[in-house]
Specification:
single chain, Leucine-rich repeat-containing protein 41, leucine-rich repeat, LRR_dom_sf, globular, ubl conjugation pathway, phosphoprotein, about 750 residues, 15-stranded parallel β-sheet, about 10% strand
Length: about 750
């Protein structure tokens, strides 16, 4: 009876409420949360037990979960949505007052949609309108994973969902994962709506009619008359209707627009094709590829697209093909009274135009190659961003949609594309979207097979950086093969986007053809790097030589650099590391964190000691650098003394350096009584440490603590992947005593199995 009455639970004494809470259903427990807080009771153990009983799995990073209530309800929502959890399986879920999706949706900040987008179909159903409203307020991260090709009805549903969650919602990050053969139409739909582009008005029709939020923001005119402008039904941004037309394209687009998701897709692609970026064969692996924007301050309108067609034989041919294709489509539409399934001809035309290597103006702020070069403008090097997350400024955008009727909605601030092959057509589309995506703060392109198409992406970023309200601060690019040397790409990126704060470039292999080096780009090699705002630079070389002379221009331009990470580089000579350290000292006085991973430092002991003595560095990482491979006792003592005398060093990471037991024990002297070290964190993962060595290290550390009156700065020790399973009892004693001194992070690693796996792949 008490469980059925929430007012009773609110009035119960604390000791009775404590006994009552575990007996409540999820619905009642959720509603009793406020009463429990007022009584000073935590419901976290109950939610954790619910997780164990219902989910029956151990969540990843369970030690980092701060709120088990949110964790449970968010995962519960996802499992119910995708049909992998039966609410009748547990009495605590089976409450007649409990609507699983409705009551758990306010707690969902991250959602993943998979496969055939069944979850999107469910959320867009009329019965779940309130659920969708809740998600529009709570959802921050929207992920797509393992998507398959979808039909027109599913795309139409996705349009409604994205419009509500992104354009009129709170989603700030869109991530797409693992799509080996992407559906171009669906991918461009996701990208364009994430960028905030879509048609307003009756192109978006919900169960109750056109989008009410759109109607509130901007009332459409009573009747929309089809315009005979250059691009679709829209007018140029300077307000002048352009004469001349592509009537076949317009009429086909108009017929398609009434049919659902493909309507908006055609609108986007029409805009992309009518006003493409200036480019030269971006799809080819040519070193002189360029699809750059050029800005001017002139106010004249760009030439009409139909006029450009009349002067370009290739485009005239495309136009003739389009008219024929559109005629077929219209006949198909009349026959079926619906959308013709085959839209390939229209998309072929769109991408044919996008591939042309001529220069087509974007809007009144852009010029063709060779015109008004004196009036071109560029962003001030290193100028700070005036905007913030979700910047709403759109004025002066030199983007692909300069036409007023292509309404710009709210856009996301983070875009991540993982393991999705991007064709030349898709890269040009993305480049065009990027060129005016001023709210974008983080861009991650991982394993997309870009190749030479990376220059198209750079062209979009260059155009974007010219906007005064550009918010882009983080760019991460990684792939299997590098199309060009890493340092050249870094220079290209910084010259295109000097306001980046974080840049990460990572490649696994030099190139696809064995024996051939990466293709360089002369324009990148000679590119001037303006003074940048770069604070963090990460470069993973595909076993390339690290030449300080090539890195030097980047370091000189990055006066604000605070973090530098160099991975898998080859030092071509014994002097190279010394030259790098000298360059860092002269060019980057504010550098706080320096990391080397998989760089052979066995023969660079002098430079290692210089780094450990540096009075500015606060964090140093030597990861799998073979540091102690030929280490003498004298060198080990020099390392310990250097750290003891360095009061600025806070973190020292030494994973994978063949430390062993006796060297670990020696490192305890860093905290001896005569030490002035401020070292807080020590990472000795993957160093062949055994339980007896760890115990001896612990005893020695306890002795130093006692000598110093019980106080040392040491707070964190990382011990991943060491041989602690060889003597469980000794390891447990060592860990127990260590945890009384500092925070210890380790894992239950099976060293014997790991060794067997290593032998099996030799």
């Amino acid at each position: 009876a008490a469980a059925a009455s929430l007012s009773l639970s609110a009035a119960l004494p604390g000791h009775l409420l404590r006994g009552l809470l575990p007996l409540l259903s999820v619905f009642r427990l959720e509603r009793a949360e406020a009463a429990a807080r007022r009584a000073g009771l935590s419901t976290q153990p109950i939610w954790r037990k619910l997780w164990d009983d219902v989910m029956k799995t151990r969540p990843p990073n369970a030690e980092n979960v701060t709120c088990w209530r949110k964790k449970f309800l968010e995962t519960f929502f996802s499992n119910v949505l995708h049909g992998v959890l039966d609410v009748s399986s547990d009495w605590r879920l089976n409450d007649r007052h409990f609507s699983p999706l409705l009551h758990s949706s306010p707690h969902v900040t991250q959602l993943t949609l998979c496969n055939m987008l069944q979850g999107a179909v469910e959320l867009a159903a009329e019965r779940n309108q309130k659920v969708l409203e809740n998600l529009a307020s709570s959802l921050r991260i929207l992920k797509f994973q393992h998507l398959l090709s979808s039909d027109q009805s599913i795309r139409s549903t996705l349009v409604l969902l994205l419009h509500r969650l992104i354009h009129h919602g709170s989603v700030s990050q869109v991530s797409v994962y693992s799509w080996p053969v992407p559906d171009t139409v669906l991918l461009v739909l996701i990208l364009s709506m994430s960028a905030g582009f879509w048609r307003s008005g009756n192109a978006l029709t919900y169960h109750s009619g056109p989008c009410g939020l759109c109607r509130e923001e901007e009332q459409p005119p009573p009747q929309e008359q089809p315009e005979r402008g250059c691009c679709d039904e829209r007018e140029w941004s300077d307000g002048e209707n352009q004469k001349g037309s592509l009537s076949a394209l317009e009429e086909a687009d108009a017929e398609v627009n009434g049919q659902g998701a493909d309507a908006g897709q055609n609108s986007v692609l029409s805009g992309l094709s009518c006003c493409p970026l200036e480019q030269q064969a971006c799809e080819e692996a040519s070193s002189k590829v360029s699809c750059d924007h050029s800005s001017s301050q002139g106010g004249s309108s760009p030439p009409c697209f139909s006029e450009q067609l009349s002067h370009r034989p290739a485009l005239r041919k495309s136009r003739r093909r389009l008219k024929s294709a559109v005629g077929k489509k219209r006949r198909c539409l009349r026959r079926s009274r619906g959308l013709c399934a085959d839209l390939d001809d229209l998309y072929d035309f769109v991408f044919t135009v996008a591939r042309e290597d001529g220069s087509v103006s974007l809007d009144q702020n852009t010029v063709t190659e060779g015109e008004n070069t004196d009036n071109r403008t560029s962003s001030s090097a290193g100028s700070p961003c005036c905007g913030h997350a979700g910047c709403k400024k759109r004025g002066g955008a030199a983007g692909i949609f300069p036409l007023k009727a292509a309404h710009r909605f709210r856009s996301v601030s983070t875009l991540e594309l993982f393991s999705i092959p991007l064709t030349g057509d898709t890269c040009r589309t993305l480049s065009n979207l990027l060129s005016s995506w001023v709210s974008l703060e983080n861009l991650v392109l991982s394993y997309n097979g870009l190749g030479a198409n990376v220059f198209c992406i750079l062209a979009g970023l260059r155009a974007l950086s010219r906007h005064s309200d550009c918010c882009l601060r983080v760019l991460r690019v990684s792939d299997v093969f590098s199309h060009m040397p890493c340092m050249e790409l870094v220079r290209c990126i910084l010259s295109a986007a000097p306001r980046l704060h974080t840049l990460s470039v990572s490649f696994d292999l030099k190139n696809q053809l064995e024996g051939n080096g990466p293709v360089g780009n002369p324009s990148c090699s000679d590119a001037e790097i303006p003074e940048s705002c770069l604070e963090q630079l990460e470069i993973r070389f595909p076993r390339e030589p690290l030449h300080t002379a090539l890195l030097l221009p980047v370091l000189k331009a990055s006066k604000s650099l605070q973090q530098l990470s160099l991975d898998s580089a080859v030092l071509p000579s014994s002097q190279e590391l010394g030259l790098l350290l000298q360059a860092l000292k002269e060019c980057n006085p504010n550098l706080k964190k320096l990391s080397f991973h998989d760089v052979n430092l066995a023969d660079h002991q002098r430079e290692v000691l210089l780094l450990l003595q540096d009075p500015v560095l606060q964090e140093i990482t030597f990861s799998f650098c073979r540091l102690f491979e030929s280490c003498t006792t004298e060198f080990l003592l020099e390392i310990i003394n250097a750290v003891k005398r360095n009061s600025s060093l806070k973190s020292l990471r030494l994973p994978g350096n063949r430390l062993g037991n006796h060297r670990l024990v020696a490192l305890a002297d860093i905290f001896s009584e005569d030490s002035s070290s401020s070292l807080c964190q020590l990472d000795v993962s993957s160093n062949c440490i055994k339980p007896d060595g760890l115990l001896e290290f612990t005893k020695k550390l306890e002795g130093h603590i006692q000598q110093r009156g019980g106080r040392i700065p040491f707070t964190h020790l990382r011990l991943f992947q060491n041989w602690l399973d060889q003597d469980a009892e000794t390891a447990q004693e060592a860990l127990r005593r260590l945890k009384a001194v500092c925070s210890v992070v380790n894992d239950s690693w099976d060293s014997s199995q790991a060794f067997a796996d290593y032998i099996s792949v030799m």
